[in-house]
Amino acid sequence: MASKFGLAGGIPERRVRPIWDAIDSRQFKNALKHCTPLLSKYPNSPYALALKALVLERMGKAEEAFSVCLNAKELLYTNDSVLIDDLTLSTLQIVFQRLDHLDMATSCYEYACGKFPTNLDLMMGLFNCYVREYSFVKQQQIAIKMYKIVGEERFLLWAVCSIQLQGRLLARGGDYAAATSIFQKVLELCPDDWECFLHYLGCLLEDDGSLCMGTKNDSTYPLKSMDSHVSHLTDEAFGSRLSNASSLVQKLLTEASDDTVRCPYLANIEIERRKLLHGKGDANKLTQVVIEYFFRFGHLACFASDVETFLHILDLDKKTQLLEKLMECCEPIPTNPRKTLGQHITVFKIQNIVGSMFTLPLNELETTAVKMTQLYCENLPLSKELDAQESMYGEDLLSMACNLLVQLFWRTRHIGYLVESIMILEFGLAVRRHIWQYKILLLHLYSHWNSLPLAYEWYKTLDVKNILLESVSHHILPQMLSSPLWADSTDILRDYLRFMDDHFRESADLTFLAYRHRSYSKVIEFVQFKERLQQSSQYLMAKIETPILQLKQKANNIEEEEGILESLKHGVQFLELSDEIGSKSLTFNEELQLRPWWTPTCDKNYLLEPFEGSSYCTRETLYDQIKQSQAKVVKTIEKRSFLPRMIYLSIQCASSAVKESVEANGVVFDPKLSSEMRLLLDRYANILGFSFQDAVGLAFDISSGLKDSGAWSCNLIDWMNFLVFLNAWNLYSHEVDGDSNTWLIVNSILKKYILDKVGSMGPLESSPGCDLPNLVLLVTEPIAWHILVIQSCARSLVPSGKRKKKGGPAENFNVQLSQELQESILSVCETIELVRQWLNQQIIKSDDYKSESILSSLLKDKEEGPGKVYRVLESLTSSSTSDADFGDRITRALQSWSATDIARKIICSQRTALSSFLKICDSKIKSLQALKAHL
C-alpha cells in the first residue's frame, strides 16, 4: 500500500493541479469546469468527487456539495478497489466541516484507520478530527497508538496534553486523586509548567479554584482568581499533602539542569503561601524564600509579576521589610552591569506593587521619575549591539517613569507632566519602535488628550491580529465608537467580526496546529479561549455597534436610512438578541492587566476625577471596579440593541402623525407599532433606572428648570435618545400630557446640553480630558435621530400623487405640525451651529501657536514643576554622541528625536479629529437647510 499512498486517489497531480489553482484564486466557476472532464475519466474516484464538492460549497451550493460528499463517502465504504489516502479524506473533511457535518468526516477517518491500522497519516487525520470535536479521551487513545507504532516522543506528549485536558474534567468532577496523579506526571515531563503546578497543588489540597481560571469572568483579573480559600482538610492531612508537594518540588529541583527553570522555585513560595492561608505558616519564611528567589532571578523582567500574588498576603510592615531587604541586595556587580540594572528595575516594580509609589510626596515622586530616566539613558550603551527586534536593557524604566509623571499630572493638574510622559515614550519608541508597552500607554494618553487619530496610528503599529483582536482591541474600540473617525471605526469593527466568525470555524485547526508544533500550553489555551469566545461580550457589542454606525453615517438621508433598516429586518433581530442577554453568562476576555493604572476599565478614567489619595489602587477596589464595569457592559449591550428598532419605529410613528398622509400615500400604519414603541420606551427607561412615567416626569422637570440637569450626567446620551424617541412616539399616540410640547422639550434640552458642553471646553491643546467624545455623540446620535424624525414628518406633509383636501381640523393640525417642523429645523441648525463655531475657533489657530503652548508647559528654567525629565532627554540628544558609545542605530535614533516634532504631531492629530467632526456638522446643517427650503 505504501506506493499507492503516494497518489491522490490514484489520480496524477497534473490533472488536479488546475482545479486547485482555480480554487486558490477564487475562480470557482473555472474550477467546476475542470472537475467535469476529471469525473468523466475517474467517475468512481472519491477524490474527484471531493474536489467537486469543495468547489460547490465555495460557490454557496451547500445542498449539492453535501450530496456529492455523500456519494464520495459511499464509494469509500463500498468499493474495495478504491484507494484511501489522507488527501482524499482531508478534502472531504474540509467540506463536511464547513457544512456542519464534522461527524461524517470523523467516521470516514475511523473507517480508513480500521482498514489500514498502521498508517500514520490517516491516524494523524483522525486525531485532528477528535481535536475538532474536543474529544479528549479519543485524542489520548489515538495518540498512544501512534506512539506505540513509531515511538516518537511528540505523540506521547500529545497524549499527555489530552490527558491534562481530561484532568481538568476529573477535577471539576471531584476526582481529585486521579487529577493530581495526572498533573504530577505532566510536571515530571514539563517541570517549568507553572500553571500545571497550580492545578496539581489545587487538586492535592482539594481546592480547585485554579482550575476555574479561563472559564469564569474572574480570569480577567488573574490575581483575584488565584486566591485560595482556607482548606477544608484537617491539619494532619493538610501537612501531609504539602509535604508530598515539597518532595515533588525538591525532586524537580534536583533534576533541573537549566538555570532558566523557575517553576520549582516559585513552587516553594506558593507552598509557604498556602501554609500561611491555612494558619500554619510563617511570614518570615515566605519573605525568605522570596529573597532567595530574588538572588537567582531578581534581574529578570518577569520577577515582579512572578511574586506579585505572594506579596498580597503580607501585611504592610512585612511588605516594607521585604522591600528594604531587596534594596540591600541590589549592590553593583561590576562584572555584570546588566544584572545590576535588572535588579534595580525589579525593586522599582516591587515598590509599585506594594503601593509605596502612590504615597510619596510630589518632590520624591518627581525625583524617582528623573532617576528612572537617567538610569535608562546611562545604560543605553548596553544595548548597542542588539538587533532592533530585540528587547533593550532597561525598557521598563521609561514606562514606569511615564506612570509616575501621569500621577504627577493627576495630583497637580499641570499639563507639563502629561507632556513629559508622552515625550519619554516617544523617545523610547524612537530608540526602538517595537515596544508594545510604550504604544499602549501612548494610545491611552493621546486618547485622553483628544488626539485620537494619533492614538489609532500607534494602535495599528501594534499589528493586532487573530486572538489579540478579542483581548487587545478594547484599548481603542470604545474611543473610536464615540469619535468622528467613522471610516477607521468601520475598519476596526469589520476586521474584528471577520476574525471572530472565521475563528469559530477554524479554532480546531489552530488547536491541531499547536499539537503539531508541540506548543502544548497553546493547545489548552485555544480550547479554553474557544469556550470563552462563544459568550464574548465584546463580540455581541461589535455585532450591535456595526449597524448603529451605519445608521449614524446615513442619518442625513431618510431613504438610505430606511434601506439600512430594511437590511437589518427593521431591527427585530437585535431585539431578539437583547431578549437572550439576560439568560447568557457573558465572558469578558479583555486583558485588563495591560491597561494603564489610571484607566483600569474602559469606562473608568481616574484622570477625570480629583486626586483623593492612593486608596483607589488597592487590589479589592480594582476588582470591584472591574465587576461593576462588567455589569454595566451587559446593560449597555441590552440598551444599544434597542436602537435600530426604535429608530425604525420612530420613523413610522412620525410619518403617521400627519393627518390624511396615510390614506393619501396608500400606506396603512399598524397601531401595534405604536404599542411596541411604548413597550420599548418602558424597557429603555427601566435600564436607566426609572419607570416610564418617572422618566417622562424627570424630563419635563429638567426642561422647566425644576430639577438640576446633573441627574442625567452619567447617561446623557441615553437620556437624549430616550427624549427623541419619546417625541416620535407621542407624535402619533398623543399620550403625553397635552400641555407639554415634546418637540419643544427635545429642541430646548438638546440645545442646552450642547451649549453646556461647548462652554465648558477650553482650547483642545491645553485641555486634556475635555468632553469632546460626548459632544460628538450628542450630534451623531440623538440629534441625528431627531433629524430623521423631522425628515419623516416633512415627507408625509406632501402626499405623493394626490392633492390634500383643504379646510377642516386635519389641515389645521398639519399647519401646526408644519410650523413645529420649521421651528425644530431652525433650533437644530442653531444648536449644531454652536458646535461649528467652536470647532472653527479651534481649527483657525496656527499650529505654531498651539505647539508653543504645549512646549511652554515644561518650565525649562524652573526648579519646581515639570521639565526635569525632559531636560534629561534633551541633554542626551543634544550632546555629542558617537557610534562607539551607542552604536549606529541608537545614535541615529537619538539624533532624530525632537520635542517640537512631537508637539506638532499632537496638534495635527487634534486638527484631523476636529476637521472630521466639522464635516459631520456641515453635512447635517446642509441637509436641514435643504429640507427647510423644501417646506
Structure description:
By secondary structure, this protein is mostly helical. It is 71% helix and 0% strand. The longest helix is centred in the C-terminal third of the chain and has 37 residues, at 808-844. 41% of the residues are buried. Belongs to the MDM20/NAA25 family. TPR repeats lie at residues 160-193. Keywords: TPR repeat.
Give the topology, please:
Blueprint: H1 13-24, H2 28-41, H3 46-58, H4 62-78, H5 86-98, H6 102-115, H7 120-133, H8 136-150, H9 153-172, H10 176-189, H11 194-204, H12 222-225, H13 235-255, H14 263-277, H15 283-297, H16 303-311, H17 316-329, H18 337-354, H19 362-378, H20 395-412, H21 415-431, H22 436-448, H23 452-461, H24 468-472, H25 477-481, H26 486-516, H27 520-533, H28 537-553, H29 558-567, H30 572-581, H31 619-641, H32 643-655, H33 661-665, H34 671-687, H35 692-704, H36 716-733, H37 742-760, H38 772-780, H39 782-797, H40 808-844, H41 847-855, H42 868-878, H43 883-896, H44 899-934
TPR repeats: 160-193
Pfam families: NatB_MDM20 (PF09797)
Protein name: N-alpha-acetyltransferase 25, NatB auxiliary subunit isoform X2
